Amino acid sequence: MTRILLSRMEAHPSDSHTLARYEATGGYAPLRKALGMAPEDIVAEVKAANLRGRGGASFPCGVKWGFLAPAEPRYLVINADESEPGTFKDRQLLERDPHQLLEGIIISSFALGVHHAFVYVRGEYPRPARRIQAAIDEAYAAGYLGADVAGSGYSLDVTVHLGGGAYICGEETALLNSLEGRRGEPRIKPPFPAVEGLYAKPTIVNNVETISNIPWIVEHGGAAYDAIGPEGSRGTKLFSLSGHVRKPGNYELVMGMSWREMIYDIGGGIRDGNALKAWIPGGASAPWFVEEHLDTPVTIDDIASNLSMIGSGAIVVMDETTCMVKAALRVVRFFSHESCGQCTPCREGTTWLQQVLTRLEAGDGRDIDLDLLLDISDNISPGLAWPPGMTTICPLGPSAVSPITSLAKYFKDEVVAHVHEGGCPLA
Amino acid sequence: MPSQPDLVTFTVDGKEAQVPAGTLLIEAVKAAGVHIPHFCYHPRMKPVGMCRMCLVQVEGPRGMMLGTSCTMPVTEGMVVHTDTDTVAKAQEGVLEFLLLNHPLDCPVCDRGGECPLQDQTMAAGPGESRFVEEKRHYPKPIPISDLVLLDRERCILCARCTRFSDEISGDPLIEFKDRGNATQVNTFPDEPFASYFSGNTVQICPVGALTATPYRFRARPWDLEAVESTCPHCSVGCRISVQASRNEALRFLGVDNGPVNQGWLCDKGRFGFEFLNSGDRLDTPLVRDEDGDLVEASWAEALDRAAAGLSAAAAEGPGRLAGLGGARSTNEEAYAFGRFVRETLGSNHLDAQLGDGLDPRVLAGITPRAAIDDLERARTVLVWAPDLKEELPVLYLRVRRAATELGANLVVVHPRATGLDPVATHTLRYRPGAGTEMLRRLADGSGDLAAVRAALDEGPVVAIIGRPGLGDDPRLAEAVMAFAAGLPDAAVLPVTRRSNVYGAADMGLAPTLLPGRVANDAPGRDAAGILEGLASGDLGGLVLLGSDPATDYVEPQQAAAALDAAGFTVAIDLFLTPSAAKADVVLPALGFAETEGTVTNLEGRVQKVNRLLPGPGSARPAHEILEDLARRMGGSIGAASAEALAAEIAGTAPAYAGITWEALSWGAGREGIVAPGPEGSQPLAVAPEDHAPPPAARDLVLHQARVLYDRGTLTQAGPSLAKLAKEPAAYVHPEDATRFGIKAGAAVRLTGSGGSAELPVVLDPSLVAGTVYVPLHLGAALGAGLEISMEAVT
Amino acid sequence: MGLFSPIAGFGVTLKQMFRKRVTAQYPKEKRVKPQRFHGRHVLNRYPDGMEKCIGCELCAGICPARCIYVRGKENPKDAPVSPGERYGFVYEINMLRCIFCAMCVEACPTEAITMTHLFEMSVTTRDDAIYTRSELLMSPEGDVPHPQPPSKLIDLDELKVADGWMRATAPAGRAAYEGVRGWTPTAGAGHRPPERGQSGDDGADGEEDA
Question: Cβ contacts (< 8 Å) between B108 and chain C: which residues?
Fold first, then answer.
């Protein structure tokens, strides 16, 4: 089994988060190697690794780094605002191997010419925040941070910021607003953060998992990383498997297996021997998959070509006892609750969707309600296509549309049954 | 200074148009005659793209892209579609979303009938609602200040009000709270929306979420008659729309006059209209009877009495009569007043100011004179003047814009903290009386003032200069002007407050000036001289035109005594002011919005004021009153009509040549025309000299300056503003407080040159130690002298 | 032109002589008015006594004869006159100018102003022709004041009848509302009875009985 991210915590579950264990297992050697390299060579290695962003959009990390505008100062911000329902991978990385992330931050900052990096941790993650803060304190004491990083003369400070508990702050520009002390509302793009980000300076925002890969890439070379896994989905990926599977949990996997293997082998199958009904392949924002997708491969591009997304790797499996209207309501309610309120279609539309679904679930549905749901959705995400069109600034509103389109595509009968039977037929 | 931006060509709905590069799409499409509906976009504020109403499609490399036209700058060759099915569906969708939770109380909403949301719904909205759920509910309007009510149910969360308060006025007292569907605009706990500019948020609110208490339920938009006019409250001269129903002024709205107010008004201007409807307005002439009481009289009787009294005084010898006032009149009335005093009364004793302004020759003749709009291009702005936020609020907005949005250096010199300080690059403080020393150090630019001096050397410089307080010598302002005129590419904007002081000076209402900026070789007495002459008996009589020296003169008690001693006084006024109450004949005049004419603002911009209301009772235009008086005294001042006077002014005053009512009423002239106009010339050129007095060394000096809401006649005549005037207080530096052994809130007795008052103490660390600040016209009359004594009251 | 032509014209007269007379001997006898007859106005109240008028001035705005004058005012918080924020504290109709077109009735968003069957309202001075709130507004019990006392001419019961077609056409102007009775209950009258051709259904707008 290929291990890039979880090897240390699997081998040393009790103290993998300490500097002593980290250094004892080869930690900070990649940093020393990196400090001896030219920054542009590090960027070249990351480009060669074909590492794709792990935060949801799967944008190639090296390409993103290449967009960084030359102005000074420039910032690196680590997006640890892991709030997508069903995702719990970054938490493990932060809690169990914070130095791996920190080393990634230091190497990336060095490569990007950054002298101040920020780690924006989700408000509900006090323990991960404490762990990464403790690691930073250790690193300062050991000379890996501060005015003279590992004796190289390069200076770097890292600041941990705990968010206020808004999902929207996982959107990079909302995160930057929040970090600046403003309302967590996404900004209009362009300008993109790489040109005008934190404090209107060039900023790279990367996910925890993405940056945690950097030490390994520097140590083994980009080509070695590029040799792992199928094309377009290189390296390993952390999957957060949850829902009605027998063995939920975080799995570090090389992609390319089929969904059948993912759910039945890795996940151990469906609970109580029930039948599979549907699953969400990449977090609450992703359109659902059903049985027909079982034999399609789990890669970034294959999921996309089947009109969904790998997202942050959160797989939520639903068995036959699940009411799909209720499942859609749960997802929509989440997005309605988490809408920042800035754009009209998202603020009003997601709440309206929630109200209609609530009515359907309560048995007060009307025959026109499914068409109404789809038309509301169409006004939030014109064309109901994938990747979604948007009448909004950020993709949060269109994300709330995914369960509606999935409902209409695969479970229309169930909606009709809700209307005609005056409530959920499964209840 | 940026050169003319390049033009780019783009296509909208198949029509080609050209606009300057960088223009936002929503503005650019207007060039092609296309209108895009919008709610959150406002041309005077930064776009936020929140309402999503202005979605259009733009052809891009990846096909047609839907985006908000308010956030997209036009680029060369851009192809835009505003009429596709996708755009129509998206816009209708957004409109439906906006209407979901919008209450259907249009019939009782003050916005109903002039509401952008209503208009857009009527034009393109769905015929009926698909929304069967319960709407969002909040308590119906909550007062967020004394003047503004907030109805959160109606709010469509466009952020116009919050952005205005933050970006434009710099009073971020309202903000979004909560998020998502629960997002609402609100104030911070226990902090009302007490902004001097709160009324603007009511005007720019695209729905009826923000409404103004003075206008609440007073009329429906279709009842209103409106004329465009110029705000009568201060010398900025904001363009307004006067709106009335049933012959009663009901509201003023800001009109976007680019070079002046850019659509904004201060609350005093906006809600100050109430004085027009005051029950205290004079509506019939008053004459003093045998018992010494003022009693109502017919016009004929009152005019006969006035003419007889004035003739008798004039017969005593030349120069026995004097005239005060005209600074709140139109140019036409001021000109008529000048002719009346000079020709009919045969006197050169004439002053529009009351010792609280600047030398009228400087006002009328200073060059290079700045226009307000020069602030758009200035690299550095020097403000050594009254606190603009308190005295000329909309000029404050323009300076603030220059300092924030346009990135100009801002240097503020004032005895205490001003409204501009938060956005100033440099703030300098000095003790009143020690301004000369401050100026010398600033000109020298050594030590800690080097950075300030460096900023001032970055041109173009606009210097806004006036008397920061009552105690500042007017010659200090002239010295500052002399200094400022020498700065690179500098222009000077001299500041005084009353609305038409500049016009009055141009019309010759000054002892040293004749109409048309011509120096008077035989100067008469100024306000101080006139009052002195009345008290001593050197002068036999006085005509007041909208002037109240007993309140507004720098030493009110002196003025009151002079008026008591005056032989014969005629007051032409809107109200029975303390001064008018001492007159022998009081003649009721028509005021703002009741007469037609022109006014000149502080940059020399002549603008039209228009008539909409009949005025109270038998009140008459001032020029008609003066003409009738002149005729009874055996002459005429040729004031057949205001328009005839305007024509005479254009012929007499070279700078006003070509500035006709016609020119001011149509086309570009509605923005006003700056005199000297393009063809006009300027007979008087005054180069201010550095002739400031030596600094005073005193233990404790008094700084007195005006505040926006005071106890002035016009402010107090309207119920909405009257209650906003604060109680007077003494602002004391903490060091002085310690020295005198007093605490905040304790009472002190201040005794100045013209009076004494017992006031509560407020600690003000922004003062220079040794200075006590007392706001003017709040009830504490201490006189104009610098020296003051303070003692704790136990 | 024939020989009998001058006489043939009398044939018409002759035929009419034997027809039923249409002239009614008003005021001795009064004809039954059509149900939608436009008589004088009345300002209604809700059954709980609240005034329906909210002083919105839409009636004044629509009036083609410009005969209505309304002023709105903020409802006193402790003793509101009408539901909501605003009520009409001045309401005047100049009956000399009124052309009884009922556009005011159509424009009214709250069914505050309706028309009755009474049209006998002769006056001796022009001032008397201006009906103010005291002539227009019904009492909380549903009684409508009228300036003239009841007489052979003036049947005050006609004030209790109001035209009924307004609601049938008002909401969104939909054809679906044609023939459907819908009326907010009014003090003293409750729901108006359905007109001929209307169903007893309260209408699709779900107006509830207050």
Answer: 54-56, 72, 84-86
Question: Does a structural domain hold residue B123?
Answer: no
CA torsion through residues B439, B443, B445, B449, sign: positive
Same-domain pairing of B302 and B222 = no
pLDDT of residue C172: 46
pTM: 0.93
The backbone region for A41, taken as left when phi is positive above 0, alpha when psi lies in -120 to 50, beta otherwise, is alpha
Residue B37: CATH number of its domain: 3.10.20.740
Residue C92 lies in a domain: yes
To the nearest whole Å, the CA of A262 is away from the closest chain B CA by 35
Distance (Å, whole) CA B780 – CA C5: 104
Q: Is residue C188 part of a domain?
A: no
Does the beta carbon of C133 lie under 8 angstroms from any beta carbon of chain B? no
Q: Which residues touch A130 (CB under 8 Å, ≥6 apart)? A: none
Q: Last residue of some domain: B629, B656, B674?
A: B674
Domains along the sequence of chain A with CATH: 7-226 (3.40.50.11540), 236-319 (3.10.20.600), 324-420 (1.20.1440.230)
**B121-152 per-position pLDDT tens digit:** 999 888 788 999 999 999 989 999 999 999 99
The interface residues of chain B toward chain A in range 438-457, judged by CB-CB distance below 8 A, are: none
Give the closest-approach CA distance of B156 to chain C in angstroms: 20
The DSSP secondary-structure symbol of B167 reads I
Q: Which domain holds residue C163?
A: 32-177
What average pLDDT does the structure give for chain B? 93
CATH code at C107?
Answer: 3.30.70.3270
Residue C179's pLDDT band, with cuts at 50, 70 and 90, is low
Q: 3-class SS at B704?
A: strand
Check residue C195 and give its pLDDT.
Answer: 67
Interchain CB distance below 8 Å, B107 and C54? yes
| C 49-68 near B (Cβ less than 8 A) | 54-58, 61
Asked whether the predicted pLDDT for residue B680 surpasses 90, the reply is no
Q: What percent of chain A has pLDDT over 70?
A: 100
The pLDDT value recorded for residue C200 is: 63
* Cβ atoms of A58 and A310 closer than 8 Å: yes
Please write the tens of the pLDDT for every residue from C99-131.
999 899 889 988 899 999 999 998 999 999 999
Say if residue B1's pLDDT is above 90: no
Chain A nearest C-alpha distance from B146 (Å)? 28
- Asked if residue A191 has a cis previous peptide bond (ω within 30° of 0), the answer is yes
Q: Go through C161-181 and write b for each residue having 16 or more CB atoms within 10 A of its CB, e for each that does not.
A: bbbbebbbebbeeeeebeebb
